[in-house]
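From the shared-data thread, chain only:
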Amino acid sequence: MQNFSFQNPVKILFGKGQIANIRSEIPTDARLLLVYGGGSIKQNGVYKQVMDALQGLYIEEFAGIEPNPHYETCMRAVDVIRRKELNFVLAVGGGSVIDAVKFIVAATFVQDADPWDIIAKRLPVTAALPFGTVLTLPATGSEMNAGAVITRNADKSKLSFMSDKVYPRFSVLDPETTFSLPAKQIANGVVDAFVHVAEQYLTYPVGGALLQDYFAESILKTLILEGPKALEHPLDYEVRSNLMWASTWALNGWIGCGVASDWATHAIGHELTALFGLDHGQTLAIVLPGVLHVLREQKREKLFRLGEQVFGIYNNMSADERIAYTIEAVEQFFKQMGVATRLSDYGLGAEAVEAVAQRLSERGWKLGERHNITADVVREILMLRL
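Structure, as C-alpha cells:
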C-alpha cells in the first residue's frame, strides 16, 4: 500500500430530528446564506425544520441551484455574500447544492483572478467561508468530502475541483428527509454511490489494502441489498438509513486510502451530461460496463474479486466467463434500479460518441488508474454502449 495522509474533519449528525441541532453548530454571530435548489424542501417540511432551528440568526436565502450546478448561478450567490457581508453558508439539498456551496465559499475569496480558474487551472484555494449541510438526497458523498463538480454553461464544461478548505463543518443526515424523493432520484443516487466505490475498487490489487477491499465490498453489498427495497418501500426508515450511510462512505475518502483510483467513468459521464443533458447517474450506468469490458484484462484480478465477494461468481466456469458474468451482473443491477444502460435508450447514437471523444481529445486527457484511456479508447468504450 502507498504512503498516504488523510484528513476528514466533518462532524456528522445522523438520524431523525437532527436538523433541530444545527443551531449549536453555527456561530452565534453568523450572518447566514441559506442555499437550496428548486424548492422541494418547502414541500417536504425540511425548510420549516431548518428555519425553526435557525431562529435568531440573520438569514438571506438563495434558491435555484440546478441539478448540475452552474458556475453562473454560483457567482450570483457569491455576489449576494459580498454585498450582504455574510459569513456562513448552509447548503440544504443533495450533492448538487452542496457542490455549488463548496465553489461559492471558495470563489468568495478570489479577488484578482477568474474564479473559474479554481477548476480550470487548479488555482489554489487559500480561504473559504465556513459552511454546513443538510443532506436530502444521498448519492454524491459531497456531505463528507472536499470535492465538487461544477458546470459552466457558456462552453458546456463540467469539471471538478478538490480542496481541504471546502470540507463542511458539519452535515446533517436525517433519513426521513429522503422519504419524498421520486423513484428516479433514488435510483440515480444508488447508481452514483455504486460507481463511486467501483472507481476506487476496480483497479488493481495493492498489498496491505485488504481492509479497503472488504470495506468497499460491504458498501456495494449494502447498495445492492437496500437499493431495490427503497424503490419498493420508500418510507422504510431502516432501508433509507442504510442507503444514506453507504452513499456517504462511498466517497468520504476512506476506501481510497493508499490505493489506485480510476475515475474514467465519471470523466466520460460528465461529458455526456454537459453535452446532452443526461442525468449523472444515467451516464454512469451507461459508461461503467463499457469501461469494465474494454479494460477487462487490466482490471482482471479485481473483477474476479468483485464477482466472488459481491455477486457470488466463483471458479465453476472459465476465467473469461467469470469476468463476463461479473460485468453483466453490474449492468443488471443498474437495470434492476430502473436506470437504462445504453446510449440508444436516450436517443443517442454514434454522433454522441464522436462528440465526447472529440472533447477529450482536445483536452489531451489520458484517463484511468494507468492513464492509458485515450480519446480513441473512450470512443471504443462508448461504441459498445450504443
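Strands lie at 11-14, 31-35, 58-62, 88-94, 131-137, 147-152, 157-162, 170-173.
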